[in-house]
Design goal:
By secondary structure, the chain is an alpha+beta fold. It folds into 2 domains: about 120 residues, SH3 type barrels (Roll); about 90 residues, no CATH class. It has 5 helices and 12 strands. Strand 3 and strand 4 form a beta hairpin. The protein is rod-shaped. The N terminus is likely disordered.
């Protein structure tokens, strides 16, 4: 069978309502019209695996009714065809098949490109509504928002290290009793800790006196604090 007849056969299969499928060599390049969800299957009942941004380039490998399977730098999945724009018409479909052809082959490729373009443009019989991307929830305190179960330590105003509530209570108590743990006559004057205590060092210049075990605990709080923040989706 010639290349032209092979292409026409694919066109006929698409015309009778079968899913349009393509191998990696027949992928159609397209871009997202606007932000839209990428789902694990061809429909809104399938879970969201990613989100395309407006203008993001993708490769379409298959279309079923009003949904197309896309590949891009990220999880691959299915996108509503109404939110995709083909990167070209017949010339795009023609280039997707590989090498140069005769005029008959080019004509057949143009027909295939027109059908693919129609699906991408959302002109299929499927009346499924277009689906916009689900907006990411706003973080109440921006990048300093703590994960559930964590709070700001507040050793001083602006101390946004995320810790367990009991650690914040400990820091407040240490601040409250700080005067009872210093030896004003010591080598560092009013910042000299009594025997058995050391500077807490929760932040630069923190000379509140605590036990050595508590200072090590605070060091770990500073190290692990960023992992206790909510990461914006």
């Amino acid at each position: 069978m010639s290349v032209s007849l092979q292409i026409v056969s694919r066109v006929i299969a698409a015309g009778v309502g079968l899913a349009i499928s393509a191998s990696a060599a027949l992928a159609v390049e397209a871009t997202a019209k606007s932000a839209v969800n990428v789902r694990s299957g061809p429909g809104t009942s399938f879970g969201k695996v990613d989100v395309l941004y407006a203008g993001e380039p993708v490769s379409i490998t298959e279309c079923r009714a009003n949904w197309c399977h896309i590949q891009h730098p990220g999880p691959d999945g299915w996108v509503s065809a109404r939110y995709l724009i083909a990167a070209g018409g017949a010339s795009e479909a023609d280039s997707a098949t590989g090498s140069s052809r005769s005029s008959d082959d080019a004509a057949a490729a143009a027909i295939l490109g027109a059908i693919i373009g129609g699906v991408i443009a959302g002109r299929s019989s499927d009346p499924a509504p277009a689906e916009p991307a689900t907006p990411a929830p706003a973080l109440p305190y921006g990048p300093d928002t703590c994960k559930p179960g964590f709070v700001w330590r507040d050793a001083i105003p602006g101390d946004h290290v995320c810790v367990r509530p009991e650690r914040r209570a400990a820091a407040h108590n240490e601040n409250a009793v700080a005067g009872s743990r210093v030896d004003p006559e010591g080598a560092y004057g009013p910042n000299t800790c009594k025997r058995g205590f050391v500077w807490r060092e929760a932040y630069s210049g923190d000379v509140v006196c605590v036990t050595g075990a508590r200072r090590e605990q605070v060091r770990l709080e500073n190290r692990d604090g960023p992992s206790h923040r909510v990461v914006s989706p």
